[in-house]
Design a protein that fits this description.
The chain is an alpha/beta fold. It has 12 helices and 7 strands. Helix 1 packs across helix 2, helix 8 crosses helix 9 and helix 11 runs antiparallel to helix 12. The mean pLDDT is 86.
Length: 322
């Protein structure tokens, strides 16, 4: 994980270097076209040094000189602003340049990590995890209903009708996310397309500008255990909790421990409080999830999550896309 943090730190350094170079380029351009602005900036520098000397010496007429300085600076600023606009520049053209105006490209605001830091961290994790390549293939544009059987069993919808119904419902839900948090469980036997559909929704959220953290249940619960026992940093916890959309693949396939239900319940509750979205895929039925994780987690999943059950024959042998 430290490699990700180092990569984010380098991104901020690159921003600072790029913005500094642009800042100098703009000044050179303006000074060449409007020499008077260069003179004004020189006056600002000289005057500020003089005022600092007066402040240190605390002369009797300091307050008078300070008032004169303020008036002079105000007049020069107005002159500079007018000259910029008159010569076709924006009035803030010579202001310092920041990629993030909240943290001024430091990554921190009010002694806490800025939201831009978390977005970059999640973005790099998404890229390095391989999810980027997966979602290029597994998205709604490549989803095919033709791989599903039209054969009905009893009063149930056919696998194809069920898939069509689920996709329609997902499309409606996606319209209100991320403004409204969206928690989804895709359940069903192996090879029924639940992971593909989950990835379709993940891609949809990415396209809407959401930050995405993609992980398998086994890796996630190991990370949560490491955080619990102090083997990972608080920032790792923020990465898991702070993303807009957390995708947990194959819940129930991990090796459970006595603490697993506690870790999972804490994760569910914290993300719910933050108003974040979570997508889960599982081969387990809802009854099996109750057995694996207990009544408290099972009831939370049933209450807080939209549950979509996929069924039918294994379609992985019909197409490489699912």
């Amino acid at each position: 994980m430290e490699d990700l943090y180092s990569a984010v730190a380098r991104m901020y350094e690159n921003d600072k270097q790029r913005n500094s170079a642009e800042y100098m380029k703009r000044h050179s351009k303006v000074y060449q076209k409007v020499p008077r602005i260069a003179e004004i900036d020189d006056i600002f520098s000289t005057s500020s040094v003089e005022m600092a000397k007066f402040a240190l010496n605390k002369t009797e007429d300091f307050e008078k000189k300070q008032e004169e300085y303020r008036k002079r600076v105000k007049a020069l600023k107005e002159e500079k602003r007018g000259l910029l606009i008159k010569n076709g520049f924006a009035e803030d053209y010579l202001e310092p340049i920041y990629t993030c105006k909240e943290c001024l490209d430091t990554g921190f605001k009010d002694n806490r990590r800025c939201s831009c830091f978390m977005r970059r961290l999640v973005m790099l994790n998404y890229k390095y995890s391989g999810a980027e390549e997966i979602l290029k293939r597994e998205n709604f544009d490549n989803f095919s209903f033709d791989v599903y059987s039209t054969q009905k069993t009893g009063n149930k919808l056919s696998p194809r009708e069920n898939a069509e119904d689920i996709v329609k419902r997902l499309a409606r839900l996606a319209e209100s996310c991320p403004e409204k948090p969206l928690n989804i469980i895709f359940s069903g036997p192996t090879g029924t397309g639940k992971t593909f559909l989950c990835n379709c929704m993940a891609k949809k959220m990415l396209d809407k500008g959401c930050s995405l953290y993609y992980t398998g249940a086994y890796s996630l619960l190991n990370d949560l255990a490491d955080i619990h026992f102090g083997k990972e940093t608080n920032a790792d916890k923020e990465l898991i909790l702070g993303c807009d959309v957390l995708v947990i693949d194959d819940l129930g396939a991990e090796i459970p421990t006595k603490l697993t239900p506690n870790f999972l319940l804490n994760l569910i509750e914290q993300r719910t409080r933050r108003g974040s979205s979570t997508f889960i895929t599982t081969n387990c039925s809802i009854d099996r999830l109750f057995e694996n994780y207990g009544e408290r987690i099972g009831s939370r999943l049933v209450k807080d999550y939209k549950i979509f059950n996929m069924y039918g024959e294994d379609i992985r042998f019909k197409t490489i896309n699912v």
